[in-house]
C-alpha cells in the first residue's frame, strides 16, 4: 500500500512526482498514453520505465506566495500552470542536490505562473516514438532553456510544452544557471527534453544518481 500524502511535509522544492494511471483517476488521455507507451518498443534507449506513469509534475510550494503546490504542463488545462496537486497515486523522487532542485522549482514557477506557454499535445504524443538521446540538437535546446530561465515568456515556449519536457527543461535550465558542466550531465539532465516521454523520464530518473526514490504515496483517494 502506498503511504499517505500529508500537506506536503515530506516534499522538497524540485521534487519530481509521477502520476500513476489507475481506475479511480483514469481519463481517455491516460488510456492513450499507457497504450502508446506499452505498444512502442524503443530502439536506442532503455525501456525499463513503467507504462502506467501518465503525467509528471515538479513540486514548487514555497517558491512564490502566489503559486500553487506544483508546476506542470497540463493537457487538461491546455497550458503550463502553477496549481495544486490533484488526487491520485504518485511515485516520488527527490533531487539530492538541493540547490539544483530549488533552482529548478524556481524556474518552473517563473515559466508557469503567467500561464503563457500552451500545452502541445502533438509533441507529447510524438515523444513516445522518439529517442531521447542527448545529441547536439538536444544540447542546443538545453542551452536555450537556460537562456530563458529568468523570463516568463521564454523563446522556446512559443512551440508549447508537455509534462515530461517541462520538467526536464526546468532542470536543464537550472543546471545551466548553476554552471554545472554539460559534459558531466547524466540521467535526467542528459535527455532530449522534447523527445522525452513520461515513461522515458521515469526510466532516466530511476537510474540517476542525482535523485533518490522516496516512495509511493496517495493523495485524496482515501480521505487524505
Verbal overview:
This protein has 224 residues and is an alpha+beta fold. It has one domain: endopeptidase fold (from Nostoc punctiforme). The protein has 6 helices and 7 strands, in the order E-E-H-E-E-E-E-H-H-H-H-H-E. The protein has helices at residues 28-39, 98-112, 121-127, 136-147, 163-177, 198-206; strands spanning 3-4, 16-20, 53-59, 70-74, 79-83, 88-95, 211-219. The protein is globular and about 45 Å long.
List its traits.
seven-stranded mixed sheet, alpha+beta, endopeptidase fold (from Nostoc punctiforme), globular, 224 residues, 6 helices
How large is the share of residues in beta strands?
Answer: 15-25%
Number of helices: 6
CATH architecture tag: Alpha-Beta Complex
- Determine the structural class based on helices, strands and strand pairing: alpha+beta
By CATH, the topology is endopeptidase fold (from Nostoc punctiforme)
Helix content: 25-40%
Give the mean pLDDT: 87
Low-confidence stretches: 43-47
The CATH class: Alpha Beta
Termini separation: 14 Å
Q: What spatial form do the alpha-carbon principal axes imply?
A: globular
Order of helices and strands: EEHEEEEHHHHHE
Helix-strand layout with pairing:
Blueprint: E1 3-4, E2 16-20, H1 28-39, E3 53-59, E4 70-74, E5 79-83, E6 88-95, H2 98-112, H3 121-127, H4 136-147, H5 163-177, H6 198-206, E7 211-219
Parallel strand pairs: 1-7
Antiparallel strand pairs: 2-3, 2-6, 3-4, 4-5, 6-7
Amino acid at each position: 500500500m502506498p503511504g499517505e500524502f500529508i500537506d506536503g511535509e515530506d516534499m522538497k522544492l524540485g521534487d519530481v512526482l509521477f502520476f500513476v494511471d489507475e481506475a479511480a483517476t483514469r481519463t481517455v488521455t491516460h488510456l492513450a498514453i499507457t497504450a502508446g507507451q506499452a505498444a512502442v518498443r524503443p530502439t536506442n534507449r532503455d525501456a525499463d520505465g513503467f507504462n502506467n506513469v501518465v503525467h509528471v509534475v515538479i513540486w514548487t510550494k514555497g517558491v512564490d506566495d502566489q503559486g500553487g503546490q506544483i508546476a506542470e504542463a497540463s493537457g487538461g488545462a491546455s497550458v503550463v500552470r502553477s496549481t495544486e496537486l490533484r488526487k491520485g497515486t504518485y511515485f516520488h523522487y527527490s533531487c539530492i542536490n538541493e540547490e539544483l532542485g530549488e533552482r529548478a522549482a524556481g524556474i518552473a514557477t517563473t515559466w508557469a505562473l503567467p500561464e503563457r506557454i500552451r500545452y502541445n499535445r502533438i509533441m507529447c504524443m510524438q515523444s513516445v516514438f522518439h529517442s531521447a538521446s542527448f545529441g547536439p540538437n538536444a544540447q542546443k535546446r538545453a542551452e536555450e532553456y537556460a537562456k530563458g530561465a529568468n523570463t516568463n515568456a521564454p523563446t522556446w515556449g512559443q512551440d508549447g510544452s508537455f509534462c515530461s519536457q517541462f520538467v526536464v527543461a526546468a532542470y536543464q535550465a537550472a543546471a545551466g544557471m548553476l554552471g554545472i558542466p554539460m559534459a558531466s550531465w547524466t540521467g535526467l539532465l542528459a535527455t532530449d527534453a522534447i523527445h522525452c516521454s513520461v515513461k522515458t523520464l521515469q526510466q532516466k530518473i530511476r537510474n540517476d544518481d542525482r535523485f533518490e526514490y522516496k516512495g509511493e504515496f496517495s493523495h485524496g483517494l482515501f480521505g487524505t
